[in-house]
Amino acid sequence: DTAVSQTPKYLVTQMGNDKSIKCEQNLGHDTMYWYKQDSKKFLKIMFSYNNKELIINETVPNRFSPKSPDKAHLNLHINSLELGDSAVYFCASSPVQTSDYKTQYFGPGTRLLVL
Amino acid sequence: GESVGLHLPTLSVQEGDNSIINCAYSNSASDYFIWYKQESGKGPQFIIDIRSNMDKRQGQRVTVLLNKTVKHLSLQIAATQPGDSAVYFCAENYGGSQGNLIFGKGTKLSVKP
After folding, report:
1. Per-residue pLDDT tens for A27-78?
2. Closest Cα to residue A76, out of A103, A45, A102, A53?
3. If you measure CA to CA, which chain A residue comes closest to B46?
4. B18 near B61, Cβ under 8 Å?
């Protein structure tokens, strides 16, 4: 029944490692997103992606890369993890509508801790 | 309850009272706004939205008011319940092909039983 799901829920890893977070949506949406939420609860867009266009927030380091095997999945790969990468990462999706108004639906989050 | 400074603003209300959470948005060209509720350990959950051609919209126990003149958005929760305790975010859609959202800094609502 879960609309937007993420795995793992918790991820604890060492600095310098490479890790991936997976996201899947069963809503039939065409656009998916990754957000980072810091310790102050501030939510910031990292990427938005559909099968036609990837939009990258220019402040996101190139150690972060989204990978989409199909329309229902958008995974986040992180290379050479740093302490500052510790945060909660949220995946979201939104439908293609005839209007320009797109509500986004969020997953439960992945809590990443880099030691 | 506006999001200013480094600390998450907190609004504390008594159960049964009405709550008003405020948000100042940044882009005068934004044409769509959403309120999200985030409970502890969970992802943001859609509450209600409003388009810029409206100034008020009502849902179940919630009302969103939009004042484009001063770029202000508010969320009113009637008869606040303990289950309403959460962090509330406003988000504005600044357009573009992906409908990207800019989130405000959030307001923590605490409901006292």
Report:
1. 988 889 999 999 989 999 998 888 767 877 778 999 999 998 888 999 999 9
2. A45
3. A105
4. no
Q: What is residue B98's predicted lDDT score, i.e. its pLDDT?
A: 52
- Residue A97 predicted with pLDDT over 80: no
Q: Tell me whether strands B86-93 and B101-103 are parallel, antiparallel or unpaired.
A: antiparallel
DSSP string, chain A: --SEEEE-SEEEE-TT--EEEEEEE-S--SEEEEEEE-TT--EEEEEEE-SS-EEE-TTS-TTEEEEEEETTEEEEEE-S--GGG-EEEEEEEE---SSS----EE---EEEEE-
Substitution target in B21, B46, B94, B98 with the highest count of A β-carbons within 10 Å is B98
Contact A41 B106 (CB under 8 A): yes
**pLDDT band for position B3 (50/70/90)?**
very low
Tell whether B57 lies on the interface with A, counting CB pairs under 8 A. Answer: no
Closest residue, chain B, to A102 (C-alpha)? B99
CA distance B46 to chain A (A): 7
pLDDT score recorded for residue B99: 59
Q: Hey, is the C-beta of B27 within 8 angstroms of any chain A C-beta? A: no
Interface contact flag, A55 B98, Cβ < 8 Å: yes
pLDDT tens digits along B59-74: 999 999 999 999 999 9
